[in-house]
What we know:
Blueprint: E1 5-14, E2 19-28, E3 31-37, E4 44-48, E5 50-56, E6 68-71, E7 74-77, H1 79-83, H2 89-96, H3 99-115, E8 118-125, H4 128-139, E9 145-150, H5 159-172, E10 175-178, H6 186-198, E11 202-207, H7 215-220, E12 225-228, H8 234-243, E13 247-249, H9 251-257, H10 264-270, E14 274-276, E15 279-280, H11 288-298, H12 303-310, H13 315-318, E16 334-338, H14 350-357, E17 363-367
Helix pairs in contact: 3-4, 4-5, 5-6, 11-12, 11-14, 12-14
Enzyme class: hydrolase
Keywords: Hydrolase
Domain Amidohydrolase-related: 45-341
Amino acid sequence: MYGTEQIISGTIIAGPEILPIEGYICVKNGIITEIGEERTNSKNIIAPCFVNAHTHLGDSVCKDPVLGKTSGFRVQRDLDSLVKPPDGLKHRILRETPYKTLVGHIKRSLLDMIDTGTCAFADFREGGFLGVAALNKALEGLELRSLIFGRPAEPDLPLQVVLSEVRRILLRSDGLGMSGANDLDMNLLQEITACTRERKKLFAIHAGEKNRSDIEKALSLEPDLLIHLTHAGKKDLDEIAQAKIPVVVCPRSNFVTGAGMAPIAEMLEAGIRVAAGTDNVMLNSVNMFAEMEFMSKIFSIDDRQVFKICTLNGSFVMGPDSMCSIEKGNKANLMILNGDSNNLAGIQDPVGGITKRARPDDILAVLHS
């Protein structure tokens, strides 16, 4: 309760190095006021909440579509037919979905985020001004930190009409999030980027998801954030690292669409700040436990690094207000897990155990500030 002090005991996944310590946390008015080390009988594991750094929540109206044509025992996947604007499946469905229905489905996904331990998210919001308004409406009354990237609904209209809508979108969003540099005329993208900069908002863009042909174009726009980079090469990664642009990877989504696997280890080696997101709700739930387990078991990356990608690293995308590391003076964005659940009992390393096997039903409580 606001104004009262809470004391939570257990094994704490503490600090930027996420080192497990046995002890207690004091929380007052949503702020961590003390972290103490002492022996405790508690089986609780106190961990930072997730940051889901890339979502498409409008897709909540169309879950688990057929991915493509079936040939024998195989499904031939076609990424463009699913998500490419303006006529990909999801865009056709979004155009036909009433506003009230869209808000309701987005809210269900936001509640699912809260239930599964996420405290902050970044969304690429299709549908122009109304799409952004729908997400803002769905967020009312919920304790979630959001970063909303809008985009114009009809980019093929005359330039001044498009820019007029962009200006309206920027009044209600944190910036612009575009689908890819190959999807729009570069002159239009440059105008949109300039408009975004003038209003001191963020510019983000998908790149290198289907192939690497749009990476150089995307980089020429000097974005604040890049998504996917599934097909990035060493030269691309070095340039991105030098420009200090954070990258959000979406491993489950890239796997299910057949886009390939992002070179996450190489990104980290190059010095890129990497966060993770669940991407399109129509293909994946917003459950970051599933994203973390998938990444841990598919990529040759240390469990602690995977854990940081799905939690603390999201602050590079979301900003300092979303900092979820457990440190004195930080906001209390915590998951309290039952370390004695049938699933987690017996794990040897709390970070590795959570990364590889924890599930939403292991959560005892979530604190958002």
